[in-house]
Protein 1
Amino acid sequence: MKSKLRLAALATLFSASLPALAMPEAIPETWGGDLATRPRLTGDWGGLRDEMAKKGIVLDVDAYWTPQTITSGGRDAGGSNWGNAIVALTVDTGKLGLWPGGYFKVQTISSFGNNLLYDSGAMIPANEFWMLPNTKPDTGIQELTYTQFFSPQFGLQLGKINTIAPTNQFHGDYRTGFLNTALNLPLVAALVPLSAYGASVLYLPSHDITVAGMVLDPNGTILDDSLNNAFSDGVMALLSGDIKIKPFGLPGHQNLTFAWSNKERPSLIQDPSNIARSLLTARYPRLGNPGPVLVEILEKQAPALLIPTQPLNTENETWAAVYSFEQYLWQPEGESKRGLGTFFSFGLSDGKANPVKYSYSLGLVGKGIVPGRPHDEFGIGWALTEFSDNFIPYMRDTFNLGLHRESAVEVYYNFAVTPWLSISPSYQYISPALDKVQDGNGNFKNLDNTQILGIRVGLRF
């Protein structure tokens, strides 16, 4: 029971916020059953899977296929055929008969196919999967951690931490919920790595309050597994507080998270001759690397600015803060995981090294409330990302590119066909930050709002 309480606390730790501590999923009584009801497609492996689970060893293989097409607007018409495969192994040292409170986890992620990151014209990826493990097909280690609870109130995690592990009730789970990155992640956290070596501490002073701290290598990536240069450029530190609330008897929680880094980064405030070098040097992990797209404009319109004439301006610290909440608005009597709920987040940053000054998201999600479909869910969400006034003002003013804000609306419905198969159609309407793009001849053309239709097929083996 204590172990289950710890897992529940971790599942809400950084909800609707920055990184989350990922823990093993709940283990079913059996992996077996008929094809329509078993938890995984391949069943219990002749009883072996159930025996492994009793000893605390769980191996999951999941695949997600997300074909999408641009129906209007964008940089270019076309479709994509992106897919991801996730392999996760978790070990519970207590169940294995070693020592209580310990958990090992290793998770790899692979991708294949092509995506619409460039063609959509959006600065923010319209599919979070497109960044995993990279914007091009590849394979990497997303997580390699050891977690130890020393008491029901205190735990520690070390290793390569997956900072975007889905843990929220209503948003942030790109496997079954929204696809658009801005609806899953607070984008003022643009400088927080998707995966990095580090450590985190969890403290539960009461059942309703969770306090946590995390220190990460600011240069971490899913594809970088070396410890040789970890923390050589400073740290990314995060502090989070989460409080559970229950207005009118309906569960919810509110969260406040602060992020700070002392890594020396290219400043957004640059002489025009340094713009290209700044865009190609700076890394914004959660924006899908927009630098090369903007440099293409300079190559055609102002090639002289590709040759720097003075040292790059830098910032030696940056910060961001996020307030968020999730709240059930209605639940069927006696049902703790079904109902209609809402979420909201607001974030701000210093806007000096971080291109995102403000970010907002808001949405409504229904879980298991469609008659006869107790495991389906649906959602409608809106996100707005406002870029810093310091973000390449020369290019904005000279070429009238816009680059002030980007908004997105997404609607999805997740059909839980079986416990191991889900099919989720999705529609997105995006107002891109860029007002103009170049054609093949280097001439500017207006960039219209983008509409994207897609579907996500999830298979759990």
Protein 2
Amino acid sequence: MSRETAIKTAFYNKHLLLHAKLVEFAGYLMPIYYEGIVPEHRAVRNSVGMFDISHMGEFYVKGPRAFEFLQKMTTNDVSKIEMWQAQYSCMITDKGGIIDDILVYRLPDKFMLVVNASNIDKDYNWLKSHLPHDGVELFNATREVSLLAIQGPKAQDVLSRMTNLDLDNIEYYWSHVIDVAGERMLVSRTGYTGEDGFELYMKNNIAEKLWDATLEAGEKENIVPIGLGARDTLRLEMKYMLYGNDMTEENNPYEAGLGWIVKLEKGDFVGREALIEIKTSGIKKRCVCFELLDRGFPRQGHKVFRDNREVGEVTSGTFSPMLNKGIGLAYVPKEWSKSGNEYDVIIRNTPIPAVLVKPPFWEKGSIKSRK
């Protein structure tokens, strides 16, 4: 899809007014940055920022067999989700490869799935192909929902000025329908930055109103709009995986470090037998975190060497604005995947020494106080 045919979110005119750098991403015209990736990154870490993430997909699943259907289609245990709670999960192929990592919300009248922008059509078709003949309704609500995220240690201060609800009542990975700036909407507390924050799910026709209200409410904290560039560096500092980079259908959850969202004991689900076999035979590679020991900027696709032999490649990489060093993720042989193991990352034909470290890279995120 070209820039000319890309979908514009309901916040598009706001991005234009702020002279955002807009590019096509996953079929949407999205802001990569406004002022710059580094200042936007630091604004979220130190205070608060706001993100247009309307490119994310939302599916509604309802009906008397909706729970049964989602138990079959996801790896985590849907029975553990309480009303208004969210659960991190994934969908996998019959062979155990990751189709997408998702959020599953349990709402009073339905379940809501939040999926990655690049996988909306693929995920919808996958779910649709497994629908039973009756008892389950599946609806793609993506184009009807605008999504604004407020992230940072001051996020609650900002949102509290826009609602009468005591936001301490919304715990980490929970949600509720509340009034924000006089408009009714679903508000959740998850995020993908390592900082405290909220996601506001709203109708398209009130998006611009909420954008302006959020900027006004956050004036004291110097809230700024944040583009996808800083969203990427923020998530990488936390070792939050990005589908298409750090996991694909070529990777299973155990290799990706997502074994904790696989609940084999819950009973049958798509791909379960494959995962049992993989777990029994053992994985051969693992996704790890590395830091460069010399100055450099690791990027996706850079080769990883050990003892003068290529053993993997970088799946995500950046120069960390908070740590002031190059960091990244890579799949390496399991036997050399423990922290402290050293490698060379080839950057511009030059081997740069790197060491494996325990995640996350950034350990001071405000979200720790919510867990």
